[in-house]
Specification:
Elements (H helix, E strand, L loop, with lengths): L6 H4 L40 H23 L7 H10 L3 H15 L3 H22 L2 H12 L8 H16 L6 H31 L1 E4 L10 H13 L6 E4 L2 H10 L3 H12 L11 H17 L5 H6 L7 H32 L11 H13 L3 H4 L5 H16 L1 E6 L10 E7 L5 E10 L9 E6 L11 E9 L12 H18 L15 H11 L6 H7 L11 H9 L5 H21 L8 H12 L15 H4 L10 H18 L6 H12 L7 H9 L5 H7 L5
Parallel strand pairs: 5-7
Antiparallel strand pairs: 1-2, 3-4, 4-5, 6-7
Length: 710
């Protein structure tokens, strides 16, 4: 999942004299307000930041940004691209720099002290954004440029940027009257409070609730790597001598796959799927109901039928109806596949005399048994070859082969935690600096679960001195024994490549204006480059070089690779239904919210899944009370379908390589960089894809990829 900054950050708004130094409330120099210094065009001062720096820095940066906005808006000069649009893009990046660090603390360094700041700051950020979008004088200048005949003299990228500003301002309420704007701002500020509350409730459940194993018998079936990770988690919790299964996906899923203790599998499963849904202080149901009500009111205020219609207007899908059409086309064959998978699992359980009916906490456990029986493939056979650091080297190798990028470790850059490592990225042919890549791979308290990519600084080349990008990848792998390699699952390895795809999308960016740079593309297109990169994990060139046994150093046997390929569509019913259930419920709840004053999330989820014919053996990948994608902010709301939409494009795009000379075909890779990875949002994504592929994507490639075609 790509982590996006707020819209006004993308717009590059935030001005001050770059050399000014402002003191924090504690009397110290506030490092957040200074220009980034050091090599590589300057780097975030992570080593100097304290929680008490955030509030004064944010308030100062926002106040100064608004002052500069007023100057642009009230200029006596006739509006032109240079004195209005380019000025907004060329602003001193002070606020962007502050926010880049702020969001690192929010996602990876959260603490009670920081969360208090976050609760206060988030509504102020929403208010700040509204003051910009609701500035009538500023919008009139943008509108004049958008409607001017002189626009035809601008470059294609400049015209795209004018369109970007104009449409974003309208979608944010620029044409509302004063009373409507006031109400819109009230809604946005209240939503910001609710998003923060939702996220903090979820983090609390993931931190405070965990499963403690106190006896060796409770470890039955667990591989040594899972036992070691559980032992280290126990040490971190102050429970040395026990084993702890954390309430995060990276800890729960291996336990559900291997534990022979059905009673403990059920306990772990219930703990995980009930995050945010326990009727206690961290319960998110009331928060969700209020978010849905406010989103529906906002959509109507802005002139849209529903929140879903508002969100999808500037996406590739354009309408909820088109997105639903795709999801429903895949839903039926995926459910049919699940029935086959459950029958295979039930047959094994019956043969073993287990005397059970397959339940959701049994699915992964018996699916692994089916994989062994049908494909002679054991995940534990694969894992010794999947070392985290070796796979990271494999990603770097792919980046050089396809994108001409080389990664060099650096030690002269401050980091926010000892786990974080940094690499300089250079052009493999010329050695020219391209950007920096930060890697934060391990789980810890105060870090939200999951995996994501962030951009600390966007690439641009507006002025004489180009600005290079800084990106990061963040994961939640569980540490094992000290000084031993971290072994990860095949699914985790794919996620590693996926997030690296987002990073490469940012690193390959070669555009003029920061608002159109890197991953600043429509939600249902941004997942395309990342999902595409997953395909290269399975290529022989990667596996033979980098999937080597952690003890012997020998590459993964070819016969084991063939088993992996043969089983590539195994369990796709489960994976697709688990995901699609979340995507469908996301879309449906935002469509009906416009017609209901108050929605009971648990009831809606239950009744919607029943109407869809959800297999009883599967639960949504993200149940509503823990669905951070859609309730911790607007970005993926009514947009979780985007992974499937993007995978249609992904499957079709990879076939461009297989139809040529293979995954490392240089000409296809060059076109991929030229029309997809480097162009950001400077052209319409659909047009960019057609330039790459020569046509629109076809859903048949996705059905083949998932094994649903005949």
């Amino acid at each position: 999942m790509r982590k996006f900054l707020l819209v006004f950050v993308v717009l590059g708004i935030g001005l001050m004299n770059s050399g000014e130094r402002i003191s924090a409330s504690c009397g110290e120099v506030n490092p957040l307000l200074n220009e980034w210094t050091g090599n590589y065009g300057g780097v975030p001062p992570f080593d100097k930041v304290k929680v008490e720096h955030f509030k004064p820095a944010m308030e100062k940066a926002m106040a100064d940004a608004l002052q500069r906005i007023e100057k642009i808006a009230n200029s006596l000069e006739p509006p032109t691209f240079e004195n209005t649009i380019a000025e907004l893009e060329r602003n001193d990046r002070r606020l962007n720099r502050v926010l880049a660090v702020y969001f690192v603390w929010s996602s990876a360094m959260s603490s009670p002290e920081f969360q208090a700041v976050e609760r206060e700051i988030q509504p102020k950020l929403a208010e700040f954004s509204d003051k910009i979008y609701q500035n009538e004088a500023l919008f009139k200048r943008i509108e004049a440029i958008y409607n001017s005949p002189e626009k035809s003299k601008l470059t294609e990228e400049q015209r795209r940027l004018v369109w970007f500003y104009y449409t974003n301002f309208i979608r944010a309420g620029a044409k509302l009257d004063a009373e409507q704007k006031k109400r819109l701002s009230e809604i946005n500020q209240e939503l910001a409070r609710l998003y923060t509350k939702f996220s903090q409730n979820l983090l609390a459940d993931e931190t405070e609730k965990f499963l403690v194993l106190k006896d060796e018998s409770e470890l039955a079936g667990l591989p040594q790597s899972v036992r070691d990770a559980a032992a280290q988690a126990a040490v971190a919790k102050g429970l040395k001598g026990s084993w702890v299964i954390l309430n995060t996906r990276s800890s729960i899923e291996p336990f559900l796959t291997y534990s022979e203790r059905r009673d403990l599998r059920e306990k772990a499963w219930r703990m995980f799927v009930n995050r945010g849904d326990n009727g206690d202080k961290n319960d998110n149901n009331a928060v969700i109901s209020e978010i849905l009500r406010l989103r529906a009111e906002r959509a109507k205020l802005l002139g849209y039928k529903s929140h879903a219609h508002w969100r999808l207007e500037d996406s590739m899908a354009k309408t909820p109806e088109r997105a639903m059409e795709l999801m429903q086309a895949v839903w039926k064959p995926a459910v049919a596949r699940v029935r086959q998978e459950v029958a295979d699992m039930q047959a094994i359980a019956d043969k073993e005399g287990a005397g059970i009916r397959i339940e959701p906490w049994d699915y992964r456990y018996y699916a692994e048994k089916v994989r062994k029986a049908k494909y002679d493939l054991d995940e534990n056979e694969i894992k010794p070859y999947l070392q985290l650091e070796k796979l990271r080297e494999g990603m770097f190798w792919v980046a050089e082969q396809l994108f001409g990028l080389k990664f060099k470790p650096v030690n002269d850059v401050p980091v926010y935690h000892p786990d974080v490592k940094v690499w300089e990225v250079v052009d493999a042919k010329t050695g020219k600096h391209v950007g920096l890549w930060y890697f934060d791979p391990y789980a810890r308290e105060g870090k939200r679960s999951g995996a994501w990519m962030s951009a600390y600084r966007n690439q641009e080349k507006m002025d004489e001195k180009p600005i290079t990008t800084i990106v990061s990848n963040n994961s939640n792998f569980i540490k094992g024994k000290p000084d031993e390699p971290i072994l990860i699952s095949w699914d985790d390895a794919k996620t590693l490549f996926h997030e690296f795809g987002h990073a490469l999308h940012g690193l390959c960016s070669n555009v003029t204006y920061p608002s159109l740079s890197g991953t600043n593309v429509p939600r249902d297109y941004v997942e395309f480059p990342s999902q595409l990169l997953e395909h290269w994990l399975l290529t022989p060139e990667v596996l033979q070089r980098f999937a080597v046994h952690y003890k012997t150093g020998k590459p993964i046997p070819k016969e084991l690779v063939e088993k992996i390929k043969h089983a590539s569509t195994f369990n796709q019913g489960f994976a697709t239904v688990e995901y699609l259930a979340s995507a469908l419920v996301d879309m449906k709840i935002h469509l009906v919210a416009s017609e209901n004053e108050k929605i009971d999330p648990d009831k809606f989820e239950r009744e919607t899944l029943e109407a869809l014919g959800m297999p009883r053996e599967i639960v949504m990948r993200h149940r509503l009370p823990q669905f951070a994608h859609i309730f911790s902010g607007d970005d993926y709301s009514a947009g979780y379908y985007s992974y499937l939409w993007a995978d249609v494009i992904t499957a079709d795009a990879y076939e461009a390589f297989t139809e040529a000379s293979g995954p490392y075909d240089k000409k296809i890779a060059e076109r991929l960089v030229q029309y997809v990875f480097s162009v950001g949002n400077t052209i319409d994504p659909a047009e960019g894809y057609r330039l790459f592929r020569g046509r629109d994507p076809k859903i048949e490639a996705l059905m083949r990829k998932r094994g649903f075609s005949n």
